[in-house]
Amino acid sequence: xxxxxLPGDGIGPEIVAQAVKVLNALNLSISMTEAPIxxxxxxxxxxxxxxxxxxxxKEADAVxxxxxxxxxxxxxxxxxxxxxxxxxxxxxxxxxxxxRPALLYPELANASTLKPEVVSGLxxxxxxxxxxxxxxxxxxxxxxxxxxxxxGINTMRYCESEIRRIGRVAFDIAxxxxxxxxxxxxxxxxxxxxxxxxxxxxxxxxxxxxxYPEVELSHMYxxxxxxxxxxAPKQFDVMVTGNIFGDILSDEASMLTGSIGxxxxxxxxxxxxxxxxxxxxxxxxxxxxxxxxPLATILSASMMLRYTxxxxxxALKIEDAVKKALALGYRTADIVTDGCxxxxxxxxxxxxxxxxN
Length: 357
Ligand SMILES: NC(=O)c1ccc[n+]([C@@H]2O[C@H](COP(=O)([O-])OP(=O)(O)OC[C@H]3O[C@@H](n4cnc5c(N)ncnc54)[C@H](O)[C@@H]3O)[C@@H](O)[C@H]2O)c1
Hints:
Elements: E1 2-8, H1 12-25, E2 31-34, H2 39-45, H3 51-59, E3 62-67, H4 82-92, E4 97-103, H5 116-119, E5 123-129, E6 137-144, E7 150-155, H6 160-177, E8 184-190, H7 196-209, E9 215-221, H8 222-231, E10 238-241, H9 243-256, E11 264-268, E12 274-278, H10 295-307, H11 312-327, E13 330-331, E14 341-342, H12 345-356
Helix pairs in contact: 1-10, 1-12, 6-7, 8-9, 10-11, 11-12
The protein binds nicotinamide-adenine-dinucleotide.
Nicotinamide-adenine-dinucleotide (NAD) binds next to helix 4.
């Protein structure tokens, strides 16, 4: 197993080090090689995605990424900014399917800002399309109109095959998640009443659903979905949506779980090669202080074992160790409550390693 390890910026190096520690503790036959991306890539090679980093990522079976970005790069030309490195690597590796589970650990029910009865037992999988939509559509840019006024343009677009392949990922995952003979459920989120792109999205998802008679398909407009996620989140099982809606809804869902520091993610290509990263950003405000929550990154490593390496046993081992560390009361600052043991980033990594055994 070859893993490219790309720590990135801000808290990236701190949290990735904890995930690497956990993977090493499992004594798997893996080789891990580190390379810079984002601001670190710009510093090292004048490019947020240096050629050598992209090459390493292409040759690896999976990529473990921290996060990219820092406000100090905000003044760089757009193509040199850290986030471009991230968008480009997703595109270059053809990682079109982003899986973001929002799962509430019972120990953290009080860390959510929602009432425990609304969120306890929450287990949602948000499937977000990652390589299309308004983030990539052309034309785009800022230009000056003849009257001297500036105009900004982005283009929302999806073609049928892009919608079908992400839909398929969502239906397949729903089938796998089916528990105790319950009906598998997919909720497709769009804005088909206003946007033609998502009118097509809905048509294609409906066509595809004919291949999955076991799955109950529903549709929801994105504004309602944003509301329902807060009002009654447990109504959802798998949600599937486009890039921009998924970006926003998955961050919203993260707060149901108490902290964005708890949410892992996987981005997969058609052959289950994947890039695994926490859902949060580089948190420059707390970088270098050893206080970030590394659990989202550690849980991303667990997703890597499950989805790319089909190693369910060790994936579960990591998840159980995280649960155990939480049950023992270990908490980083973002999830700490009265009576718990507040620990730093590396101490939390150590607690998970200790819980593996
Ligand atoms: N995938 C990515 O790499 C990614 C995603 C989002 C934002 N960013 C970049 O990150 C930088 C900061 O963006 P932002 O502040 O909007 O989002 P952010 O996710 O970095 O931080 C939002 C808030 O959550 C906190 N937080 C985030 N991760 C945490 C963790 N593991 N433990 C504890 N607290 C945590 C931060 O301290 C901050 O208060 C920007 O440069 C942005 O472009 C990168």
